[in-house]
Write a structure and sequence with these properties.
With 342 residues, the chain is an alpha/beta fold. The radius of gyration is 22 Å and the shape is elongated.
């Protein structure tokens, strides 16, 4: 069977503005349409009654990729009947919360995660830490969240008056900037940080910073405005599951990342070559100071861009992922046809 005869369907939990849907589904859509015969992206309804009707109307699917959502047992059973190959794709520690103190192996979220994995024919994990959480015996492949290096590019002919230190992220991570802002304020020249977020950091009492509210339209120009991109994280199971996509956005735009040495950050950044990794308790200012040397900044900026283009570009990961799914479909599909609802 040719891949052009395969119908591939993504089931997503949110619109194109939701980061995981935006970068792990819609960013791959064009490549998927070149590879498969038919491609559909369908949003799962939120309410129970709407979902009942939704599953009854779902068409036959050769490959169904359920993106991140952990479904109930009856929903998973229906999906298995509709799908020749059912794949579960996730890029976060979905079994825990950002500030959840409970151990990894307990709680309702963990049970739902395990049930979802066991219902799938294959699992697609965003990094090695996440893949290790998949129950033994279930086929799992690692697919980092790729980045469109044709869209995320360095600003042309950028000549800043001095290195711009920036941070972009959601408001829940703003508290992690407190200690860094304190370091910048205590510096003799009182360095400033450009904060881009969905909410203004009203509770940050110290430090010099400027604030810009994030929007899909201004995201790329603001990234290109940065020279140094910060990504502080706590060393927790939730943080270890993060895909490091903000680092990839920085690096694709030629922004040199300085990030906590946590989780996948250590796999993306080569310390001192294309960015810096900050160990727990280590100050951030010395690394920021190094990048005030414009020769070092330029060299590391080029290295950061090259790393992303060679290792994390959409064209590389899309081809690998679709070849894997089509081969698994050929293995699972024929034996599952008789169970599928028509």
């Amino acid at each position: 069977m040719s891949t052009q005869d395969i119908h591939c369907v993504w089931l997503v939990q949110g619109s194109e503005t939701l980061p995981s849907t935006r970068f792990r589904v819609f960013a791959l859509e064009r490549a998927a349409r070149d590879f498969f015969g038919r491609v559909s992206i369908i949003r799962i309804p939120k309410t129970f009654l709407h979902r009942v009707a939704f599953y009854s109307r779902l068409p036959r699917m050769d490959i169904c990729i359920m993106q991140k959502r952990m479904l109930s047992a009856w929903e998973l059973a229906l999906l298995r009947r509709k799908s020749a190959l059912l794949a579960y794709d996730f890029d976060d520690s979905v079994w825990t919360e950002q500030n959840d103190p409970k151990p990894l192996d307990c709680g309702q979220h963990k049970r739902r995660f395990l049930r979802t994995c066991r219902s799938a024919d294959v699992v697609i994990a965003g990094n090695a830490f996440l893949a290790a959480a998949v129950p033994y015996g279930i086929p799992v492949t690692i697919a980092p969240t790729p980045i469109d290096v044709e869209r995320y590019v360095p600003a042309p002919d950028k000549i800043p008056p001095g290195p711009v230190i920036g941070w972009m992220g959601t408001a829940s991570y703003l508290p992690l900037l407190h200690s860094i802002l304190d370091e910048l304020q205590r510096a003799p020249d009182h360095l400033s940080l450009h904060i881009v977020s969905n909410q203004e950091p009203l509770r940050i009492a110290c430090g010099h910073y400027t604030f810009t509210r994030w929007s899909p339209e201004n995201e790329l120009p603001l990234l290109q405005h940065f020279d140094i991109g910060l990504m502080p994280l706590e060393d927790t199971p939730y943080s270890s599951g993060k895909g490091g996509f903000k680092i990839l956005q920085y690096m694709a735009c030629g922004v040199v990342p300085i990030a906590s040495a946590v989780g996948v950050n250590k796999e993306i950044i080569s310390h001192g070559i294309d960015g810096f990794l900050v160990q727990p308790g280590e100050p951030w200012l010395p690394y920021i100071r190094q990048l005030h040397n414009l020769d070092i900044l330029k060299t590391m900026s080029c290295a950061a861009r090259n790393t992303v283009c060679e290792r994390f570009a959409v064209r590389i990961h899309a081809a690998s992922l679709f070849l894997y799914l089509s081969s698994r479909y050929r293995e699972f599909g024929p034996s599952r046809e008789r169970f599928m609802a028509w």
